[in-house]
Design goal:
The protein has 12 helices and 58 strands. It is an alpha/beta fold. The longest helix is centred in the last third of the chain and has 25 residues. Among the domains are: 184 residues, Ribonuclease Inhibitor (Leucine-rich repeat, LRR (right-handed beta-alpha superhelix)); 123 residues, Leucine-rich repeat, LRR (right-handed beta-alpha superhelix); 60 residues, no CATH class.
Length: 899
């Protein structure tokens, strides 16, 4: 059995073996029980039983990721013998943590994902002298400012501290952390720290694991960091670090993993890397090295090459040719060199990489043929060589020994496939790389040991027409069906409850959704991804969502649905992506979604969401924009345009961490997926979600994005009734590319720091009631190519810059502005003359505008010319009304004849 089959069997077995229901109090009869582990079950949203606090012999209690919800019972503080407590990965909250003081022997505490925002004084109230491991990831600690730690609080035993994803902004809040001199592991990843890496970290000389990834540090790597000779894991990825890597990195002789990816580092990879004999992982992707690939191979030719397992230089601005030096990395498991400018042929020495499991050479300029030595890579599982200039024949020589290959992407080359797969050992599953052979005409896979079943049907992007029949029996053989982008019409079909992915989008399906949604309501649905967008479906959305609780992504956009959103849609607790745009929904903003723990978690005060796209445009939602939306820190597209929302724009928009970063995310976007593929860059075994097309409005145009969707960051609140001022906080979204507040009733001035939006390409504030001058800082927006400030009350001179003066003058109309690109020049005092309007001084200095005078005179003359004779001559009046009566009779008769 293959490793993939084993993994699938384990996952299936695990999902079927999870406990649920209520926990029986009969557990109290186990009076001598010291170890209780209920983790990774599904107790369906029940609270943690209070009676667990009466199991006084317990030393180990693990309730993590078990579906518990609500207040953590203070009765757990009675477990005075407890050494290990893990409540992480649930939907829990506390009012205080004083009960922890009853656990003096506690060594391990994990409260990750619990809401601790109301327990900011626990450092003063609790004594945990034995605590060695503390994990508080995603605990809403951003507003937590710890007071001076009393001398009675002893953290000298603490060796592991996790404060990741807590929304911290200022590193000064962590001074108490910098005093924990015995820390071995510190995780501060994915907060909002800015500026330089704090120098106080150098006091933590015992550190072996340091994770500062996912922040906004924008300095160079400090030299003192290279003195951490005991450091084993260093992760600085996904920041804005600049400059070069110092040769001092060669002092990190104990380091096993270095991740500096997704920064703005440049220069050359130092040769001192080659002396790090214990190094197993080098991840330097998405930087600006601008180096020859041969130079990097030479820099790594020392003892590091003997044990190196991961080398990731994806999107690193590399050039040059691959050479035989590649063969020195004999223990490489993952090699990622994709999205560079590497040229030349693939060297024969690639066959020496006998441990290689993932190879990514995509999107380069590699030419020549695929060397026969490829056939020596017997452990290869995924291969990405698409979008190159490879040519020649690919035959059995290349594939005979590749029995573990599951992913093959080789499109956009000039390769010719000539293989006979009969009698190969391909089973027990169909190899997934066969799916990429779009021009395969003949396939012989006889006697290959396949015992699989068809689970995937994809007939999308054709011109198939007619109705989709109700054939649940046949459809039950498939778990994935994609018939999108065809010409199917008629009603929605009934489907099997076993289906996990269904894409019927971009067809002409019509009618109600009732029979589709409510079919076999007693059966729970396995559906995780449902796309019905871009059809002609109409009517209300039926209230039958209770059995669809596994849904992670739902698209009903671009249809003709109406009415309010049904309450049962709030039962979709796993929902991560929701698209309802371009319909005619009405009612208040859908706060009923508060139960969706991945959607707007702060409405129930629970874990942070992974939602990246929220699109509710073109509906009739009314009410205010809830500030709880700001809890969606991963959000990078927020589109609430064309609704009836009112009130002010929330000031907490700066909480959108992803939009606040200049660098692009490498993480998957939860939109619509068919399969969970291995990471494309080959740097992780973590599953990612492949992308489907998403419609966004950018620079005033509706555009579709697919694989580049993670690069798009947009806020669109246009065409509503929003009032108040544009919040200054919006200028902190430095990674934002498009900002649209047009067609509202916003007042006040444009924020002075608008120039801080250094990545913005499009701004639209048109048709509001903004006043004052255009901020001078707007002239520094070097990427700005679309700006519309028309129809406001702005005054003064348009700031000088290449971008602003190159825009069309219509983008400034309807204001009292002057200067290029407008034809009105400004005087020294910024007075705007008008060369087209003739005015004169008269009546003691009063300005007379003859256009308005002539308009008034014309109205008076026209009125008396038409109505004057009728008022003065009685006979004319009779004739006129007789004419109207006669005309009315003729029209009435004509209508009667027509009917």
């Amino acid at each position: 059995m293959s490793s993939n089959s084993i993994s699938e069997a384990i996952i299936l077995s695990y999902s079927r073996s999870r406990f649920g229901g209520k926990i029986n109090p009969s557990l109290l009869d186990l009076k001598h029980l010291i170890y209780l582990d209920l983790s990774y079950n599904d107790f369906g949203g029940i609270p943690i039983p209070k009676f667990l606090g009466s199991m006084g012999s317990l030393r180990y209690l693990n309730l993590s990721d078990a579906g518990f919800v609500g207040l953590i019972p203070h009765q757990l503080g009675n477990l005075s013998n407890l050494h290990y407590l893990n409540l992480g990965d649930n939907d829990l909250y506390v009012k205080n943590l004083q009960w922890l003081s009853g656990l003096p022997l506690l060594q391990h505490l994990d409260l990750s994902y619990a809401n601790l925002s109301q327990a900011s004084d626990w450092l003063q109230e609790n004594k945990l002298p034995s605590l060695s491991e503390l994990r508080l990831s995603q605990c809403y600690l951003s507003g937590f400012i710890p007071p001076p730690i009393p001398s009675s609080i002893n953290f000298s035993s603490l060796t592991t501290l996790d404060l990741s994803w807590d929304g911290f902004e200022n590193t000064s809040i962590l001074f108490w952390v910098f005093g924990l001199h015995n820390l071995v592991s510190l995780d501060l990843s994915y907060n909002q720290f800015q500026g330089s890496i704090p120098v106080h970290l150098q006091n933590l000389t015992s550190l072996r694991h340091l994770d500062l990834s996912g922040n906004a540090f924008n300095s160079s790597i400090p030299n003192w960091l290279y003195s951490f000779s005991h450091l084993e894991f260093l992760n600085l990825r996904d920041n804005s670090l600049q400059g070069r890597i110092s040769s001092g990195i060669g002092n990190l002789t104990s380091t096993i993993s270095i991740d500096l990816s997704s920064n703005e580092l440049e220069g050359k990879v130092p040769r001192s890397f080659g002396n790090l004999c214990k190094l197993r992982e080098i991840i330097l992707s998405s930087n600006k090295w601008g180096q020859q690939i041969l130079e990097i191979f030479e820099s790594l030719s020392g003892c590091v090459s003997n044990g190196l397992e991961i080398l990731d230089l994806y999107n690193a601005q590399l050039s040059g040719q691959l050479t035989d030096e590649l063969g020195q990395f004999k223990n490489l498991v993952i090699l990622s060199l994709g999205n560079n400018s590497i040229s030349g042929p693939i060297p024969w020495s690639i066959g020496n990489l006998s441990s290689l499991r993932s190879l990514n050479l995509e999107t380069n300029q590699i030419n020549g043929t695929l060397p026969p030595s490829f056939g020596h890579l017997s452990k290869l599982e995924s291969l990405y060589i698409y979008s190159n200039m490879l040519e020649g024949v690919v035959s059995e020589v290349h594939f005979t020994n590749l029995t573990r290959l599951t992913l093959l992407y080789a499109s956009k080359n000039r390769l010719t496939l000539k293989v006979i797969l009969g009698s190969w050992n391909l089973g027990p599953k169909f190899p997934s790389w066969l799916c990429s052979q779009k021009q395969l005409l003949i396939l012989d896979i006889s006697n290959t040991g396949i015992i699989d079943a068809f689970t995937y049907l994809n007939i999308s992007h054709n011109q198939i027409y007619g109705e989709i029949p109700h054939i649940p029996l046949i459809l039950s053989y498939f778990s994935i069906i994609d018939v999108s982008s065809n010409h199917f019409e008629g009603p929605l079909p009934c489907i099997s409850s076993n289906l996990s992915f269904l894409d019927l989008s971009n067809n002409s399906l019509s009618g109600s959704i009732f029979h589709f949604l409510c079919y076999k309501m007693k059966e729970p649905k396995n559906m995780e991804f449902l796309n019905l967008g871009k059809n002609l479906l109409s009517g209300n959305i039926s209230n039958c969502w209770m059995k669809w609780q596994r849904l992670a992504a739902l698209n009903l956009g671009n249809n003709n649905f109406s009415g309010s959103i049904p309450a049962s849609i709030g039962s979709l607790i796993n929902l991560r992506s929701l698209h309802l745009s371009n319909n005619s929904f009405s009612g208040k903003f859908p706060s009923l979604l508060k139960n969706c723990k991945y959607f707007i978690p702060l409405w129930i005060g629970h874990s942070l969401s992974r939602l990246m796209i929220l699109s509710l445009r073109f509906n009739n939602f009314h009410g205010q924009i809830p500030e709880e939306l700001c809890a969606l820190t991963s959000l990078q597209i927020l589109d609430l345009s064309h609704n009836k929302l009112f009130g002010s724009i929330p000031k907490c928009l700066n909480n959108f961490i992803t939009m606040a970063r200049n660098n692009n995310s490498n993480y998957p976007i939860y939109v619509f997926s068919c399969t969970h593929d291995e990471a494309r860059k080959g740097t992780s075994s973590t599953a990612v979600v492949s992308l489907r097309l998403q419609l966004v409005v950018f620079k005033g145009k509706a555009l579709e994005y697919s694989t580049t969707l993670q690069l798009v960051k947009i806020v669109d609140l246009s065409n509503n009734n929003l009032s108040g001022e544009i919040p200054e906080e919006v200028t902190r979204l430095k990674g934002l590319q498009s900002l649209n507040f047009s067609f509202n009733i916003l007042t006040g001035r444009i924020p002075e720091k608008i120039g801080d939006l250094g990545s913005v390409e499009s701004i639209d504030f048109s048709s509001n009631q903004l006043y004052g001058q255009i901020p001078q800082s707007m002239s520094s927006l070097t990427f700005l190519s679309h700006l519309n400030l028309s129809n406001n009350n702005l005054t003064g001179k348009i700031p000088s810059s290449t971008q602003l003066q190159s825009l069309d003058a219509s983008n400034f109309f309807g204001n009292k502005l002057c200067g290029p690109p407008l034809i009105d020049n400004c005087t020294i005092k910024d007075v705007q003359p008008n060369t087209e309007k003739k005015e004169c001084k008269a009546f003691s200095g009063v300005d007379v505008d003859w256009f308005y005078v002539s308009m008034a005179l014309g109205f008076v003359v026209g009125f008396w010319v038409v109505w004057g004779p009728l008022l003065l001559n009685k006979q004319w009046r009779f004739l006129y009304f007789q004419f109207l009566d006669h005309l009315g009779y003729k029209v009435t008769g004509l209508v009667a004849q027509t009917w």
